From TrEMBL:
InterPro entries in the record: TY-Chap_C
The species this protein was found in: Gordonia amarae NBRC 15530
Domain TY-Chap C-terminal: 34-108
Protein name (Swiss-Prot/TrEMBL): TY-Chap C-terminal domain-containing protein
Superkingdom field: Bacteria
One Pfam family here: Chap-C
Length: 124
């Protein structure tokens, strides 16, 4: 699993389905909406997002990894705050929030399958 640093998403670029078809944010498909939300969160790379959308068996390890990420980031944020580094603590809590939102979208994909429901946007 490859993780992408925050801010690395291709903002303003039309999102692509694995088959190469454009997936604009205005598209009604839940797959498009899930893909767009995961790309906006910038926690997973494009190949991992495609795997999450194409193979439901990939979801459990992705969800588990994302939970581990946000728990680790929250612990590191708490340690930074205790050490008096509030800027680092706020940054780490923000990163943890993005990972929690990633878990939410991945669970929506798992629960509803493909095309059943659009994700909540702006949940980070």
């Amino acid at each position: 699993m490859l993780f992408v640093p925050a801010g690395a998403a291709p903002y303003g670029v039309p999102m692509q389905h694995p088959a190469g078809h454009s997936c604009p944010e205005s598209a009604g498909s839940a797959d498009c909406a899930h893909r767009t939300e995961l790309e906006r969160l910038a926690t997973l790379d494009a190949a991992t997002i495609a795997r999450a959308l194409d193979d439901r068996r990939a979801l459990y390890p992705l969800i588990s990894g994302a939970v581990d990420q946000y728990l680790d980031l929250d612990d590191r944020a708490d340690a930074a705050f205790a050490a008096g580094n509030s800027d680092e603590a706020m940054y780490l809590h923000q990163e943890a929030s993005a990972w929690r939102a990633t878990v939410t979208v991945l669970k929506q994909i798992e629960q509803h399958g493909h095309g059943a429901a659009a994700p909540m946007t702006g949940i980070a």
